[in-house]
Amino acid sequence: MSRHTVRAAIIQHACGVDYEENLGRSIQGIEEAAAGGANIILLPELHTCLYFCVEAHTRYFDLAEPIPGPTTNRLGEVAAKHGLVIICSVFERRSKGLYHNTAVVLDTDGGIAGRYRKMHIPDDPGYYEKFYFTPGDLGFHPIQTSLGKLGVLVCWDQWFPEAARLMSLAGAEILFYPSAIGWDPADNPAEKERQRDAWITVQRAHAVANNLPVVTSNRVGHEADPSRATDGADFWGSSFICGQQGEILAQASADKPEVIVADIDLDRTDEVRRIWPYMRDRRIDAYQDILRRHIDDE
Amino acid sequence: MSRHTVRAAIIQHACGVDYEENLGRSIQGIEEAAAGGANIILLPELHTCLYFCVEAHTRYFDLAEPIPGPTTNRLGEVAAKHGLVIICSVFERRSKGLYHNTAVVLDTDGGIAGRYRKMHIPDDPGYYEKFYFTPGDLGFHPIQTSLGKLGVLVCWDQWFPEAARLMSLAGAEILFYPSAIGWDPADNPAEKERQRDAWITVQRAHAVANNLPVVTSNRVGHEADPSRATDGADFWGSSFICGQQGEILAQASADKPEVIVADIDLDRTDEVRRIWPYMRDRRIDAYQDILRRHIDDE
Q: Is residue B54 included in any domain, yes or no?
């Protein structure tokens, strides 16, 4: 009996000020991946613009667009042309003064299979996302496509095991994390490596703990901080695809545009879970306090 | 201002059929670690006996003991002698026909600071723990000692992010995982490495996701399966200590008895959390389904 496999690709690229150039880079990568037989494509977070959250300024809300809108229309055409599933990232304008950081899944017919609005919103120097993005209100629900049920999350979500677990419990077959994360140029090499390694490790662990493949994209390149409050960011690339035991199947460099591709065997999830049956043994009778902010001393 | 540090040690050793020899190995390692200035000691899971769960047989219940009992008394004396905190592992006889896989924390005065009864119980060929151990009924509560609040879990718990998170929310300063895990000698080298790496990765990720140090012990050596149903197990050692970003501070070999030691800076948790503030951003309004076994299609 043939196995249920997909060929996943990640388009890792740099981003600049020009929307057309950025979208062109995304589409060029998709065409290359399609030529290589890929059928599920993950783009980086906010891949049509600079990572504007480096500073808090109202002018950047002009970059937002509705869904459906220009980006999902253009990428929908690419998806339909090649019969691909594409996971793209959109600065979503939902209403006047209401914006989200949203991932959109385009199905092989070019239509919108579903969207995920980033639930966990970061906010720290150079990553002022709480200024721009209202926290997602759609919850953690995998999106059904013609190639499988996809657990799409976004960047900061990757640090939260709860998000991966909820997608897994709801039947996600693969976890996806479009990301935009980089180094503070002022940090020393050891700190930089600890951060990048922590980022890889925590996501590989979502694969391990849920017996699910994980596909994680990031951008590359240095982007300056127009406010000069920080030294900007060196986005660390390192996009990767790992299997159900967290084993790396493909990984990109830290600093170059790349298209990486890996075949993912979806049937391995059931096989691995038979001998590593975490889902059988979860103590759901004893997890209530997960819903608390902190468990203060009695 | 001086920083709050502890020197943690792990005693990695093999286990045989003789209780006195096994406990002697544990104590010898503790003495060595104490001589090196360690003040918190982690022993492997069920370190006074062979890993009897390789088969299911009623005779092994004779190995169980009460708490307090012979092992906690003996190790309590060692703890008091050197002013150490010792985390040991006991096959606990709680009542007639009621047994647990329990970790006991002995404080620097030799008294019992608290116990943790393994909450997640594995059961697969060669690891028939559900036959022996009633799942813990004490929940996930850190144990206060004179050296800090310790989040003590046991082996199979290490695959469940919920357990680490609950300990973290309740104020644990370090996570500890006494373990007994090994390879099926019949598996090929690539599968063995995937398993060992997954085991390391998922625990390092508990450090990352909770900004907490993790201390994980394991035994070494081959143990046969008296039932001959399996080829027994090659316990893979690899005990390790990692810091708040999952960075490895010390790691033992896969096959040799060793005492490993690392200084842990407990003040780093607050520092790392200031710039990686996951606890601030957890979506506790949207995690309810964590309490479900599975989210079935509507």
A: yes
Residue B155 falls in the annotated catalytic set? yes
Q: Taking CB atoms and an 8 Å cutoff, what residues of chain A touch B175?
A: none
In a domain, A289, yes or no: no
Contacts of B246 in chain A (CB under 8 A): 194, 197-198, 201-202
What is the Cα–Cα distance from A165 to A157, expressed in whole angstroms? 11
Measured between beta carbons, which residues in chain B are less than 8 angstroms from residue A167?
Answer: none
In single-letter form, the type of residue at position B72 comes to T
Which residues span the domain enclosing A265? 5-277
Q: Is some CB atom of chain A closer than 8 A to the CB atom of B61? A: no
Q: What is the CATH number of the domain that holds B143?
A: 3.60.110.10
Each residue's pLDDT tens digit in chain B (298 positions)?
A: 688 999 999 999 999 999 999 999 999 999 999 999 999 999 999 999 999 999 999 999 999 999 999 999 999 999 999 999 999 999 999 999 999 999 999 999 999 999 999 999 999 999 999 999 999 999 999 999 999 999 999 999 999 999 999 999 999 999 999 999 999 999 999 999 999 999 999 999 999 999 999 999 999 999 999 999 999 999 999 999 999 999 999 999 999 999 999 999 999 999 999 999 999 999 999 999 999 999 987 6
Interface test with A, best of B158, B160, B285, B293 (most A CBs within 10 A): B160
Looking up tokens 């390192």 gives: A238
Does the beta-carbon distance from A159 to B209 stay under 8 Å?
A: yes
Task: Report how many domains make up chain A.
Answer: 1
Q: Find the residue in B nearest to A249 (Cα).
A: B194
> What burial letters (b/e) apply to B68-107, b meaning 16+ CB within 10 Å?
eeebbebbbebbbebebbbbbbbbbbeeeeebbbbbbbbb
Q: What does pTM read for this prediction?
A: 0.97
Q: Is B67 helix (H, G, I), strand (E, B) or coil?
A: coil
Domain for residue B283, yes or no?
no
Cis peptide leading into B44, omega within 30 of 0? Answer: no
Q: Name the A residues in 178-217 with CB < 8 Å from any B CB.
A: 194-195, 197-198, 201-202, 204-206, 208-209
